[in-house]
Amino acid sequence: MTEKIKLLLVADTYYPKVDGTLRFLEEFIKRAHSNFEISLLVPNFGKKSQRLKKSWLKETIFVEPSKHIQVSGYPNMKLSLKNFKTIKNALQNADLVFVQGPALISYLSLYLSRRYGKKTLFYTHTISWDLFAKFFPPLLNKLFLNFIKKISIYLYNRCDEIIVPYQDLKTELVEKGVNTKMAVARLGVDIDLLSPSHNKGVSKEKIHIGKNKTVIGYMGRISKEKNAGILLEAFRKLPNQENSLLLMVGDGPEEQVKEFKETKNCKITGFVDDVHKYLKAMDIFVMPSLTETTSLATLEAMSTGLPVIVTKVGFMKKYVVKNHNGIFFPRNSSTLLTIKIEQLLKNEHLRLNLGKNARKTIAYSFSWERSINKIKRILLEEFYRE
Description:
This protein folds into two domains: 5-188 and 367-384, Glycogen Phosphorylase B (Rossmann fold), CATH 3.40.50; 200-365, Glycogen Phosphorylase B (Rossmann fold, 3-Layer(aba) Sandwich), CATH 3.40.50.2000. It is built from 15 helices and 15 strands. The chain has helices at residues 20-32, 81-92, 104-115, 128-132, 138-156, 167-176, 200-206, 228-236, 254-261, 275-281, 296-303, 316-319, 334-346, 348-365, 368-384; strands at 5-10, 36-43, 59-63, 65-71, 74-77, 96-100, 119-123, 161-164, 182-184, 214-219, 244-249, 266-268, 284-287, 308-310, 326-328. It is globular, with a radius of gyration of 21 Å.
C-alpha cells in the first residue's frame, strides 16, 4: 500500500472561533483525509473540537497565543522560542504544506516552509492589507499598510502556488506584483444541511425566538472590518422594532460587542457549531463588510433561501445579482441600509423571490464536493511536479 502524502494544514484560527476559514478546513479535512495524512498547525484557544474526527487527523499541533496582542478579537501568536520550534518541527515532518490566513503563524510558516524546501501552497481567504487597514490610526495606516503589502507579496511569491476563490482576485494580485502560479477554486456550501426552512415559526422557536418576530440576521465576526456597527445603526432606525429582532451569529472584541448587548431586541449567540439552525430562523440576511474575498457566510445564507443585503466587495459583487438574488447597499450608509431592510420587510413577495433565486444560485454554482476535489487535484499536481 502506497504511503499517504503528509499534509500540514496551517491556519490562524481554531475552535471556539468558528469562522469561514475554519469551516473551509472542516470541509476539506472531511473530504481529503483519505487522500492525505493530515496534521493541523493552529493556535491554542483553549477548546478542543468535537466536529473533527480523530480518525481524520494524524495530529493537531498547537502554538500558544499572545495574552497581550490581538487583531479583530483574535490573539496573535506569541513570539517565543517554543512556538518557533513547534512550527519548525511541524514543517520539517511534512511532505506538503497548505497555509490559510494572513496572521503571524501563517506568514512565518510560509517563510520557513520554503527555507526547508517544502512544497507550499497558500489559500487566500482575505486580503491582508485590506483587513489590517481597519485596525490602525490614520497617521500610521499608510506606512504600516505599505509594509504589510510588501511583506505579503514577498511571501506570496515564495509559494509554489496560490489558490484564490475567484478570478478577479487573481487579476488583482497579479497587478499588485504577485508572480507565483495561481489557480482558481471557489469555496462551497453544504446545500443539504443549509437548506431553506420548511417552517420559519418552528425554526425560530428552536433557538428561543418568538415565532412572530421578523429576524434580521448576520453571521461572522463582530468586528471593524466586518462593519457590523453600520448594521446596528440601521436596525436602530427601523420603525416597529418590537416586531423585529437583530440576530448576530458570532462574537468579537468586547468593545465591539458591547453596544449590541445593550440594544433592545438584539440577540448575540457567540461562536456556534450549528450555524444552519440560526440561518433557518432568519428572514433577511445582511453582510455589511468592508473587505471580503468570497464571504462564505453570505453563500450559506443564500443556500438557506434567504434574501441578502450586501456591500459590493470581493466576489459578492459577482455572485449577488441586484434584484435577482439579493440587494446591494453603499458600505457606510446606515440610512440606505435601513431603507433596503424596510423594503424587504414590507414586501414578502420580493423576499421570497430573492430567497428562491439565491438558493438556485448556490445549488447550481457552489458545491463543496466540486471545490475540494479541485483543491485536492491542485495539491497533488504541485507535489508531484518536478
